[in-house]
Design a protein that fits this description.
The structure is a homodimer of 198-residue chains. Helix content of chain A is 21%, strand content 29%. Chain A is of the alpha+beta class and 198 residues long. Chain A folds into two domains: 11-79 and 90-101, Winged helix-like DNA-binding domain superfamily/Winged helix DNA-binding domain (Arc Repressor Mutant, subunit A, Orthogonal Bundle), CATH 1.10.10.10; 108-194, Umud Fragment, subunit A (Ribbon), CATH 2.10.109.10. In chain A, strand 7 and strand 8 form a beta hairpin. In chain A, helix 2 (30-37) crosses helix 3 (42-55). Chain A is elongated. At the A-B interface, helix 1, strand 2, strand 3, helix 4 and strand 5 of A face strand 2, helix 4, strand 3, strand 4 and strand 8 of B. Strand 10 of chain A pairs antiparallel with strand 8 (185-196) of chain B, so a sheet runs across the interface. Chain A binds a DNA duplex (30 and 30 nucleotides) through helix 3.
Chain lengths: 198, 198
Amino acid sequence: MALKQQQPLDPAYLEKLQDYYAEHKVIPSYSVLATLWGISAKSWVAECVRRFEEAGYLDWTPDRQLKPGARFFERRLAHDTVQAGLPNPALADGYDMVTIDDYLIRVPSKTSLVRVKGESMIDAGIHDGDLIVVEQQPNANVGDIVVAIVDNEFTVKYLDREKGGFVLKPANKAFPVIRPKGRLEIFGVMAGLVRRTR
Amino acid sequence: MALKQQQPLDPAYLEKLQDYYAEHKVIPSYSVLATLWGISAKSWVAECVRRFEEAGYLDWTPDRQLKPGARFFERRLAHDTVQAGLPNPALADGYDMVTIDDYLIRVPSKTSLVRVKGESMIDAGIHDGDLIVVEQQPNANVGDIVVAIVDNEFTVKYLDREKGGFVLKPANKAFPVIRPKGRLEIFGVMAGLVRRTR
DNA sequence: TAAGCTACCGAACGATCGTTCTGGTGTCAA
DNA sequence: TTGACACCAGAACGATCGTTCGGTAGCTTA
């Protein structure tokens, strides 16, 4: 027996909830949701919540408290071609959904973030203040951008090899190549980059 | 009159709550908190919550629901120098974030992602294939990096003004300045950048 | 050794929670 | 014309919520 196709809910409901969550970091109660959505019956709120839950946007804690679901943090990824008159971006067509965290992080337990200091990697498009997504591992390949520990500080550089051993090369001619005296301590390999510009 | 100095609370309480929040993205109720903290009296939970609230770790929504406070996501040891042994690569901000998503997105309903095509903004550290975090809005200021719609395609450029009107300037001398014939249609303003390198 | 804290327990209570059920309205196809 | 269905209102209800208040055990201070 085929499952009955559920009518899609008003996307504005989800958006309002996401905005509320972004502000308060909490999912509100049914009565607050009713106000938020302009609905005056808790029973209908319950039904809407049920559908969002079914669609994966909401979930429950073991203690039966409402919480964000797996798809709650999805973002619209606009295609690079735009339809003819498309003033209203609410149209579902022309968008894929992506969650930024899933996009960048493959192994959460081995992934961390390091803030970039200085302009030594500017030719690789890595600016001062950017966050580097690092997959922690003790070794890397020549050509990888690695986060190494030099003089008790994190440093982001290209990994390269000279006859003397491994070296760290900046992507900026104004900076010198680093040739570590002892063993080169690698913290991890760069897997991504995050920059906030506003 | 000097304010009475409050006894510091057990830091383990806050840690347990932060762990719970990291898992469920929600602040639990008093009875769940009691279980979480190994306390059997809700009245005492209420007192602890009151002190966390006083210290800025917890807060209330306008609807009197408990939510994370301003200091909830703070890091204990936030500096980019590395301790002996393997470090916890904290953010130098003094604040940690729950998710990368949270770091980049302020208004989810008005935010979407656009993939960059080409090298026209390479001098701004924006590479081919990067994802631009866009806050959708119909106008912008000179100097902003904007996502505009030109010939039914998204294009990322600096917004500038010439005597003829607004123009779009690339960050790469090999590319021409775009002078739109009619009205310049702005999709939104760049608020961040995401790059995957692996 | 009594008084005065702090840390906690436990019962009681009114408010609010989410659920359930009954019912109304608008739309569309048969 | 009549269902069928989606959308929504409202009342009723037991469960759970957070608050209040009284009480206890242990440690200080005087």
